[in-house]
Automatic annotation (TrEMBL):
GO cellular component, one term: chloroplast
Signal peptide boundaries: none
PANTHER family: SHIKIMATE KINASE, SHIKIMATE KINASE 1, CHLOROPLASTIC
Pathway info: Metabolic intermediate biosynthesis; chorismate biosynthesis; chorismate from D-erythrose 4-phosphate and phosphoenolpyruvate: step 5/7
Biological process per Gene Ontology, one example term: chorismate biosynthetic process
One annotated GO molecular function: ATP binding
Provenance organism: Camellia sinensis
Lineage: Eukaryota, Viridiplantae, Streptophyta, Embryophyta, Tracheophyta
Protein name: shikimate kinase
Localization in the cell: Plastid, Chloroplast
Function according to Swiss-Prot or TrEMBL: Catalyzes the specific phosphorylation of the 3-hydroxyl group of shikimic acid using ATP as a cosubstrate.
Main localisation: plastid
Enzyme class: transferase
PROSITE patterns: SHIKIMATE_KINASE
Catalytic reaction list: shikimate + ATP = 3-phosphoshikimate + ADP + H(+)
């Protein structure tokens, strides 16, 4: 069976003019000013046409860019298109991820990255990939709290001891983690409500995974609310239950999430990539955007 999927991808990077190899398929024109600066930012957008061949045992995917657009920005001035057309070179998300993480890692100076965001925003999923590419260790606050309370699940902790006991443990776990280096930490969705937690997280870089409510509710409805006690109260089907409760929580917390040093908006990624549904964004694409946003924060 052969399935064709089209996907657009966009990323920016810095290149040194001396390192540029001109391809015979196209020439790039640079202004004298940008030639003098020797280093400038290019924006590459590509329309990928992967061909997925599914067999009974394996699924092989190969990416073949069918269209590539290269634009150049100079000292924050809007980029102009330098070249567009079909390029024979092939690359994939994994390579971009690797390059971007290698570029940023030295500038982090070992600082921890704290992922904040609503339940189901992908803090654990994204955090694992991010830690992997940066060569960092991954810690999940909820899992650490469960360990601290003798292997009791978050849902049980809420039931047996109440939310404030859980929150005290959450603060203590965060305090301990902020004394370490080279960690990606997935915080619990409610960690942002206590100012003391922000004080701890200020030692590193905080990143808000901003995911639209519909997508959050869809993800949570798919896995169930069993492990998320704050979603247990509502009546109705799984999606509506999750949606109703999450919307109240988001209203209470959105200002707190906005304190984060960097924001990764799935709506922004989708509109950049020309993707209609944020649910189609792969974790890898989201991690690339997270690295971009961390990079922007570091440059500020
Ligand atoms: N980019 C994504 N696309 C599709 N599903 C995702 C994505 N990111 C996370 N998920 C799914 O959403 C659910 C919640 O993700 P998780 O990483 O546990 O979120 P959090 O740690 O913020 O609560 C999981 O079932 C996960 O597989
Ligand atoms: O939003 C919240 O208040 C909570 C989110 C959960 O973590 P996740 O965001 O990892 O699901 C967990 O800490 C607890 O159920 C409370």
């Amino acid at each position: 069976m052969e399935v064709k999927l089209a996907q657009s991808l966009q990323f920016s990077t810095w290149i040194d003019l001396e390192k540029m190899v001109m391809k015979p398929s196209g020439s790039l024109q640079f202004s004298r000013r940008s030639r003098e600066q020797k280093r400038f930012q290019i924006l590459i957008s590509s329309h990928l046409q992967p061909t997925r061949t599914a067999t009974a045992t394996a699924t092989a995917t190969s990416h073949k860019p069918v269209a590539l657009k290269v634009s150049c920005s100079y000292k924050n001035l809007q980029g102009s298109v330098l070249q567009s057309g079909s390029f024979p070179a092939s690359f994939d998300e994994a390579l971009i991820l690797k390059n971007k993480s290698e570029e940023i890692e030295p500038y982090l100076n070992g600082r921890c990255i704290y992922l904040v965001g609503m339940m189901g925003s992908g803090k654990t999923t994204i955090g694992r990939i991010l830690s992997d590419v940066l060569g960092y260790s991954f810690f999940d606050c909820d899992a650490m709290i469960e360990q601290t309370v003798g292997g009791t699940s978050v849902a049980e902790i809420f039931k047996l001891y109440g939310e404030s006991f859980f929150r005290d443990n959450e603060t203590e776990v965060l305090r301990k983690l902020t004394m370490m280096q080279r960690l990606v930490v997935s915080t619990g969705g409610g960690a942002v409500i206590r100012p003391i937690n922000w004080k701890h997280m200020q030692k590193g870089i905080s990143v808000w995974l901003d995911v639209p409510l519909e997508a959050l509710a869809r993800r949570i409805a798919a896995v169930g609310t069993g492990s998320r006690p704050l979603l247990h109260q509502e009546a109705g089907d799984a999606y509506s239950k999750a949606f109703m409760r999450l919307s109240t929580l988001l209203e209470e917390r959105s200002e707190a999430y906005a304190n984060a040093n960097a924001r990764v908006s799935l709506e922004n990624i989708a509109s950049k990539l020309g993707c209609i549904d944020v649910c189609n964004l792969t974790p890898t694409v989201i991690v690339i955007e997270a690295l971009e946003q961390i990079d922007s924060f570091l440059k500020k």
